[in-house]
Every structure is written in C-alpha cells, then in structure tokens.
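Hi,

I'm pasting everything inline rather than attaching a file, because the server keeps stripping attachments. The sequence lines come first, and each chain or strand is labelled.
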Amino acid sequence: MKKIAVKVDDLTVAYNYKPVLWDIDLEIPEGVLMAIVGPNGAGKSTLIKAILGILKPIAGSVAIYDKPYEKQRQLVAYVPQKGSVDWDFPTTALDVVKMGTYGSLGWVKRPSQKEKKAALEALEKVGMLPFKNRQISQLSGGQQQRVFLARALVQNASIYFMDEPFQGVDATTEIAIINILKELRKAGKTVIVVHHDLQTVPEYFDWVTFLNVKKIATGPVKDIFNDDNLTKTYGINYKVSIQE
Amino acid sequence: MDIIEYIQLVFTDYTLRTITLGTAVLGAVCGMLGSFAVLRKQSLLGDAISHAALPGIAIAFLITGSKEGNTLLIGALISGLIGTFWIRGIITKTHLKSDTALGLILSLFFGFGMLLLTFIQKQPNANQAGLDKYLFGQAATLVESDVWLMVSVASICLIVLLFFWKEFKILLFDADYTKTLGFNTKTIDILITSFIVLAIVLGLQTVGVVLMSAMLLAPAAAARQWTNSLAKMVFLAAIFGAFSGVFGTAISASQNNLSTGPVIVLVAGVFVVFSFIFSPSRGLLFKQIRFIKNRRDLQLHKTLAFMHNIAETHEDISHPHAIRLLNNFQGYTKSTLQKLVDKNYVELKGNMWSLTKTGFETAANLYTKQRTEDE
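And the predicted assembly:
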C-alpha cells in the first residue's frame, strides 16, 4: 500500500453563505500525477487554496504525510494561476524564481550564490535560461507560466499544487510543462493539477478527482474516468471519446 | 535673488535650512513608501489616510487645548490608523471593493474633521487660530525638532526596509504565494501600512491633508518609468521626492506668497510629466518614435518581399524589371525604393530596378529572421 501524501478530512469552505466546497474527504497517494476536474465554480482552485492555508476553511483538516500542513510547509510547493499577479511588477525572471528559495531562507536572510545557482538550474529545466534577465512583462504568457513553474521547482518540494498551468499557453509550452510534471512523478513526487481540458486527462494524468462543490469521485484515471462520472460532475450527459 | 545667493542662504539662514532639510527628508521617505503603495495598487490609500487624520488633529486639540505639533500629530496618527484598519475591515468583511471602502472612509473622516474644525473656530478660545494649516500645510512652521523627528522616522524606515526587503518584495508581487512559503503576510502588511501612515502624518504639517497623497504617488509613479528593478525604483522615488522638496522650497522661498506645500507637489508633478514623456523604455515619446520606425521598417520589408517575388520568377535574380511593375503594390513609394537603394539591396538603372545579391538573400530570409528575433 502506497503512502498517503495528502489527506483532506471534512473540508468545507464558504465565501459568503453558499458553500464553495462541501464536506470534502480526499486521499491523494504519493507519487501520482493527479488532475482535479470540474465545471467553473466547482471549487477546484478553492480546494488547492484551502489545502495550502491561503483560505480559511469553515471546517475540516488537512494532513501532509500524516502531520498538519503548518508543520510540513517545506514539503509543498504552489504554482498559482498566472493571472493572479501583476506581470508589470518591476522585476526579472531570475528574481521571481529566486522567490522560491525565500521559504527555506526564512525571515530577513537574503538569497546568496547558492540560491542563485538553484534558481538558474530551475530556469534551465524549464528552458528559460536565456531569458533570465528579462523584465517579466516582456515574457509571453507561456514563458511567464514556465517562470512560475521554475519558482516552484526551486523549492524542491515533495508535493506540487498547480492551478491551471496550461491556461493560455501554446502547444509547445504545454508539452514542455507536462514533460516536466511527468519527470517529477518519475522522481517520486506527487503533483496535483487543476485542469480544464478533459480530452487530455487520460494522456497526461494517472489519477483524477472529479469535483463539483462535493467530491464526486477520486481514483486512477483508467478506473474512474468515464462518462458516468463526467455526467455526474458536469450535470449534462457527457460523452468523452477515449481513444483505445 | 540668483541661484548662488540662494544656495548660500540655504546654508546660513536657519529657517530656510530647516524647511529645505525637512521637505527633502519628507520627500525621500514618501517616495520610498509611495513605491510600495503604487505597486500594491493602493494609490488611493495614502489619500484616505491623510484625510482620515484630520479629525484626530481636531480631537487632540479639543482634549488637550494645546496646539503643540507633536500632540496633534499623535492625534492624527491614531485617527489615521483607525481609518486604515476600518478600510481593511470593510474590504475583508463586506462585498465592497477597495475603491469604495477608500472613498467612503476618506469622505466620512474628512467631513467629520471639517465639522470639528468649524466647531473649534466658533469657540471663544484665542488659541484656536491656525489649525486649518493642516488642510494645505505650512512648511514655514517647521522647526528643528520637526526635522529631527522626520530624520529619525526616515532612518527607522530605511533600516526596516533593508531588513525586510525580501519579505516586502515578495508580498508586493504575490501575496498568496508568500503565505504558502510560511511567512506571516499580515505582519508584513501591517508593517508596510504603518510606515505609510507614519510618513503621511509626518507630512501633514508641511504639505497638508489634501495634497499629501501626491507626495506619496508622484515620485513613485515617475520612478517606475525609468527602471524595471524594484530596488532602483525605490531609490529613484526617494531621490525624486527629495528633489521635489528642495526645488519646491526654493521656488516658494524666492517668490512672495507662494505656499510651499502646493509648489512641492507641483514640482513632483513636473517629474511625473517629464518621466511619462521622456523615459527611454516606457515614455510616450520614445514609444512613438519606435512605433514609427517599426512601421517604416516593415513597409521597407514588405516592398522588398514584393520585389523578391518578382525577381524569383526570373532565372537571373538580378534581372532588371520595370519600376512601374511596383505600382501594383500598395505599400510602394518612391522614398522606400530610394531607401532600399541606400541599403544596397536594390540597383536602379533608368526605369528599371534589379535586386542585388544581398537584397535577394535578405528578402528570402526576412520572415525566418523576424521569427528568430522574436524568440
């Protein structure tokens, strides 16, 4: 039996009166590449943010390798939605990636040569080394996404949460990113991705969670990625043609 | 009064020296902290805080009956902080957007402050005159101890900035991510905001409630135009702020009846306008120049590509063709043809043109070249 990397119990989140997430129980085994799918407003981003403590849940708990999240922060890295920051901020690609090292540095201590080296390596991994000194507003959408990915890679975490990393990127970048994610899985890391494109789920992921305020289903893609669950999640009679 | 005489006066005359130093330090602090306000998209926060400080000044006077600067500043500080936390409260606890919260607190506190000021003015207390200087500021009332206070706040601010630079920077860029790294974002946030409130309160006496936000925003907005590095931006904003103070004081001191606060703000405004127009990378002027140049280059390339298409039909690429063939091409003008000749891409003989070897090769590689430059 595999170890459980992330365990969510009775998680309920509400912005105002209406719950966005209702009573979520979720176990994510170590070493899977998991997609979270569901319609708009299903609470996919909210689930990630609640697990990471960015949002305060009304009820429920999150455990990372059997310990409370607060004690396991250094095991977790986060790639937010690209649109969540102002890309006109006066800084360079390298500087953004360096931010990934801030957590392990702690308060006050500045990044040194060691951190810079790690950041450069991460940039190299995502193919962005030639752009290290580029002002971030002058990067394309796909390049910005790669910078965000590099920032998470530099954290050298065990579990990666990514909020729609394929949004607004071209096919080349999408393939580059998915290859990096698959490499992470091969290295035994757990990767959790909010994903929109149902067609690519069987090709990219080995684990999937269907979410629509409540958890509909979670498990291996080959077992549970079927019309029945899709219909339950999206509310319409969904037919996805999975190529055999 | 000429400039040299004035500079001598700055060093010898106590009042002028005090005011010049005070406004310079104030400008520098406001510039530094203003950069953070601008980058957090909280430009209006400064305006709300300074207006929110007014009732504090009035209440401090009503309680103590004293017009002593520091007493009133403490009143301003307290009500400025209350205003700020109410704004934060409104934003987090209700559906209202931040601009609504800011506008609401700004006008409510300012209205209350004005009410108290008129109430105080009607009182038979001879001491009451002069509180309204906090509306538009009166730099002439600065004394040495005020300047010392500003210098100490500026130094503390600078030290904190250097200490928590990394934390400030990451919070400004990506607050959610900062939280996941384990930083207490609330602490960083309160630290920045408190310093902004402190700087504003310090400036009230000099620049006044109404214009204070310009001291925060103008130097920062100007500085953003010149650099793509946060450190340089903060540094430049401090320099712009300090110079606004010095120049503003100089202009108002050398003319009669020019109030210092508004002149300082106007000088800061000149920095902004100048930066918006003349900054090399973001300025309007160079943007326009680049735009026109790009258009010309593209026109040239299109013409060359068109000629390349014609030349290709012939075995000998340098075979001459009639110029009137080019009339079929819409982008073609006499001057573009001349430019192509100047670049040695094309040769002209009478009514005929022919591509040179370099011209042909350039035209053939135009599109691929464009692409590699984009990468």
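Strands of chain A lie at 4-14, 19-29, 33-37, 59-64, 67-68, 76-79, 159-163, 190-194, 207-212, 214-220.

If the labels don't parse on your end, tell me and I'll reformat.
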